[in-house]
Amino acid sequence: MQDGGDRPGWRGALLVLVCAGVLCVVGGGVMLARVPGTIAEHRAYENAPVCGAGGDRSAGGGRHTDGDERTSSAGRTGMASWPRSRSCVTKVAARVERMEQRGRFSKRSLHVSELRSGAIPGGAGGGGHVEVRLLDSDPLYNDVLLGDRVTLSYWKGEVRTVRHGALTQETEDSPANTWRVPVGIGFLATPFGLIMLLMSWSYRNHHPNELSTAPSWPFAGVLTLLGSGVVGSFVSRDADHVQQVFLAAGIAAAVCAVLSLPLAWTMAWMQRRAADTSDVVPVRLAAPLCVAAEVYGEVPYSIDEFRFLLLGAGPPAVTSVPVEWSTPQQLPASLAIQEVRSFRPGDPTHWPSTYQYDGIVIECLDGEQVVLIACGRRDAPLILGALIHDRSAVRPWGMDGFGGTSGRAGLPGDPAPA
Description:
Blueprint: H1 10-33, H2 35-47, E1 90-102, E2 107-114, E3 129-134, E4 149-155, E5 158-164, E6 167-170, H3 180-205, H4 217-235, H5 242-275, E7 289-296, E8 308-311, E9 317-319, E10 329-330, E11 335-341, H6 351-355, E12 359-366, E13 369-376, H7 380-389, E14 393-394
Helix pairs in contact: 1-3, 3-4, 4-5
């Protein structure tokens, strides 16, 4: 006999789902909370003035010291460094010494030597060696050649942009792109976290066997969140401004919400149909038939491998397929039908996945023992007809379609009572 009730370890799986959902929501929220700060930094960079003669190294001016003294983290090696301004953009001329492309994602770098004049450690006309990591190959990397002169733009001690002629390219340290990572992660992690929490809530409050009572609106919410998050994360890679990402995510959410409404309505209709068993009435068999059905209960004829019922050739009997491989086990004549219903908690948990919204349970009593017969909605009338017509089951209570309020039910074709 197959086990019913809760699936083994479902509480542990539910706890893992909740924890993962909370981590994703919190992590995504933290990343999205960083977005205003990155946007403010970008605006500060765009509005920052170019340093005057005191900070413009390409002009050979003196030292600019209106901020703390930080060196570039872009990869300065081998030579002495000097302070960079925190309030203005410092332009530094440099010569390309080496070009590098490496890594799984083809990261591209320019190795340059800064050009500066005056009494600066390192020699006249020479400067520090810097590795400038570029975001992509276009437009500057594919245009520059070894020995070409470029202009580095320093801000807050980092190389933010590289200029070559009329071409300008952002570096990995540019504030113009620092919003991409938090926005991409936030838009992807937050919806998935909410989806996991929604799934855990639905599982906690609606047993898997209660398909007919589980609300359909979470399905629409899942599609809306998923579509918005995936589109927002994808657009964040190539969008020029963060506003474009939020606009694309909002449009995706609206489209997914509209598209999910018919699907949610269809699910609600299927749920109502699964819960309504009033149309399941016994039907007389015209010929012997084998239908898919499972018998569950603490009875000898409840066998895991026997998932078919032989009908119309005497009392109904449970069997396997092919029939020749097993000895059919007849259902007893004392089997009393109690109820025709949809799935409930306590039923074998594989039934909903096997029958989906088309499952019917015929609940019977064999003495004091509850016996459940699961089958498809199309086969339920045939099984009821076989149970009643073959006089192998009695009905001690009234039910629409069975006729009368006690005793055996009549079927179409039975002689009318005197």
